[in-house]
Write a structure and sequence with these properties.
- α2 (45-64) packs antiparallel against α5 (105-138), α3 (70-81) packs antiparallel against α4 and α5 (105-138) packs across α6 (162-171).
- This protein has helices spanning 30-38, 45-64, 70-81, 88-97, 105-138, 162-171, 188-200, 212-217, 243-253, 284-287; strands spanning 4-7, 10-14, 24-27, 143-147, 175-181, 204-207, 223-226, 230-232, 237-240, 257-260, 266-267, 288-289, 292-293, 306-309, 316-318, 322-324, 338-339.
- The chain folds into two domains: 4-118, Up-down Bundle (Four Helix Bundle (Hemerythrin (Met), subunit A)), CATH 1.20.120.420; 127-341, Rossmann fold, CATH 3.40.50.10470.
- It starts with a strand and ends in a 17-residue tail after the last strand.
- It contains ten helices and 17 strands.
- The strands form four sheets. It has an eight-stranded mixed β-sheet.
- It is globular, with a radius of gyration of 20 Å.
- Helices cover 36% and strands 17% of the residues.
- By secondary structure, the protein is α/β, with parallel strands linked by helices.
- A hairpin with a 3-residue loop joins β15 and β16 (322-324).
């Protein structure tokens, strides 16, 4: 099952806000796509990329019904790209389909479908590379991994990034346990990651976010494996808030902290993580649980959706094309472990939405 599909002129997508209950929704216009992204009906870097590309195709299809206007489609594309400012993959995917706008809606849809299909291939490949890398770090024995947020099939189109690595290891009987951070405030870990692991038959336990660093410090975790929403040119990693404490704990404990993400997540036009705009979401996501207010009426809330993990805390970044070990060498340069001969998704740089 693909989480995002083009069916009969519209986008059909799993509603991630409803999980663990299964519900799919149909999106018929660019405004539906923008709303779905903002409400996190769709989330996860590769999934947002697929949504961005198909969203432009949807805008082109609707425009064709009124007399095709590439400029109007370009305006819709800008709105889609701006729907989640931190997600590099969303803007990158929109950029991939823009060059074919003058050729009409069928060409736009073909370009968007190519982005979606490439995500499936990329995630399958990086999953195998990531599994091999963790085996080299931990050894050929069943391992205990810690993950945060959701980087499985629901965050992608079909396979997964960090959970794709877990899936590949599980196929070789090399998973003893996966510790799943619940991922407050929207609980993507307990609502989505745990559901995916249960479906795969992978042993797992859900833990509160604040317990992760202590579990790592106690020696109970062999490695941390997470996805990424954006990776800066210096290999700083932007991911769901709560990732940075896990990286600090992993560095202190001397265990690997591995990031699994497609090549398109690396934003060469963003020099460091400090340059990434961090999205702040509705305070009610923190203050309300099931409609019940969990703090006094006088209390506000700060709700950053992401944090930045500096490159020097990252053991390795696994993409579909290579494994990068971003530890500084004595000359200050980045140490790239090795490049693998795999066709890579090329990117020409991040999207300047003002130029669409």
């Amino acid at each position: 099952m693909r989480t995002i599909e083009w069916i009969d002129g519209h986008i059909d997508v799993v509603d991630q806000t409803a999980l663990p209950q299964q519900r799919r929704v149909a999106l018929h216009a660019a405004s539906d796509v923008v709303e779905a992204i903002r409400r996190m009906v769709v989330r996860g870097a590769p999934a947002l990329g697929a949504m961005g590309a198909l969203g432009v195709a949807l805008a082109a299809a609707r425009s064709a019904e009124l007399g095709y206007d590439p400029d109007a489609v370009r305006t819709d594309a800008r709105r889609i790209a701006e729907a989640r400012p931190t997600a590099a993959h969303l803007r990158w995917a929109v950029q991939q389909v823009l060059p074919v706008l003058p050729r009409g809606p069928e060409a736009v849809l073909a370009a968007a479908q190519a982005v979606v299909d490439a995500d499936v291939r990329a995630c399958a490949t990086l999953s195998r590379l990531g599994a091999a890398l963790l085996r080299s770090y931990v050894g050929d024995r069943p391992m205990v991994l810690h993950t945060h947020c959701n980087a499985g099939a629901m965050a992608c189109v079909e396979w997964g990034t960090a959970l794709g690595v877990v899936r590949a290891l599980h196929a070789d009987a090399l998973i003893k346990m996966v510790m799943v951070g619940e991922t407050r405030p929207l609980l993507q870990g307990s609502r989505i990651t745990a559901v995916e692991l249960a479906g795969l038959g992978v042993p797992h336990q859900v833990v509160v976010d604040s317990a992760g660093p202590s579990l790592i410090a106690s020696g109970e975790i062999d490695a941390v494996i997470v996805g990424a929403d954006r990776i800066a040119a210096n290999y700083d990693v932007v991911n769901k808030v709560g990732t940075y404490p896990l990286a600090l704990a992993a560095a202190r404990a001397g265990i690997p902290f591995v990031v699994a993400a497609p090549s398109a997540t690396i934003d060469l036009d963003t020099p460091t993580g400090a340059a990434v705009p961090i999205e702040y979401r509705d305070p009610d996501e923190v203050l309300l649980v099931g409609g019940w207010r969990m703090a006094p009426a006088e209390s506000g809330a700060l709700n950053p959706a992401f944090d930045v993990t500096p490159a020097d805390l990252v053991t390795a970044i696994v993409t579909e094309a290579r494994v990068i070990e971003p530890h500084a060498r004595p000359d200050g340069q980045v140490n790239v472990a090795h490049a693998v001969t795999v066709p890579a998704m090329r990117r020409s740089g991040s999207l300047d939405v003002r130029a669409i």
